[in-house]
Amino acid sequence: MTRPTALIAEDERVLRDELRAELEALWPELDVVAEAANGVEALWQVERHAPQVLFLDIEMPELSGLQLARQVQHRCHVVFVTAFEAHAVAAFEHGAIDYVLKPYDRARLAVTIARVKERLASRPPVLDGVLAELAAAARRPDYLHWINAHHHDIVRLVAVDDVLYFQADTGYTRVVTADGESLIQRSLKELQAQLDPARFWTIHRSTIVNANAVAGVTRDLRGRVFVQLKARREKLPVSEANEHLFRRM
CATH number of the domain at 5-138, out of 1.20.1420.30, 3.40.50.720, 2.30.29.30, 3.40.50.2300? Predict the structure, then answer.
């Protein structure tokens, strides 16, 4: 019996590896024939391997997930992978196979796999209507309001308004509030796309700060700029490329 085949298109290596591991655990018969880190590479892999299923991140460099889906919609079933729930719901309601939300939830992924299996015998659907809805949703900001963060063995629901800053931490992101710290399994790059840029400023490649939490800025003897917070003592370094954010302070 021929094994079903799939391609994973996701630009974040950690998330790509995690999705592959989850698929191996939940759908051992599935043969992941290739992976891709950008849209152009994914298109080439579809041409080369002709997978039956494409797990496709909506936010992809070089060629977006939506652009790629337009080109391959007749050739494979598409499962949209996204951190934006508004995108995912739109895709599901308008007839795409299904969606996977980041960070991955095993129970939700199991439901997705069951639905994909049911549709493998049918021809891939036309996605023009779905893609139009997704493109419209992408133009409407849908900023993050709540985060599920891990603190030791406890999962905390953290209001984004209460976050002082986010900081990259070896495959995770630290979520720092006035009363403590937690970890989330999302990259800083992924978070940046979900946060209101008017309030959350990228001050360094590893740090995003809540502008409302900033008390002021200082310079050391070498001229380096640091952010002082209202509710915590640590000072956050500001890269030279982002010093312009504080010139009016």
Answer: 3.40.50.2300
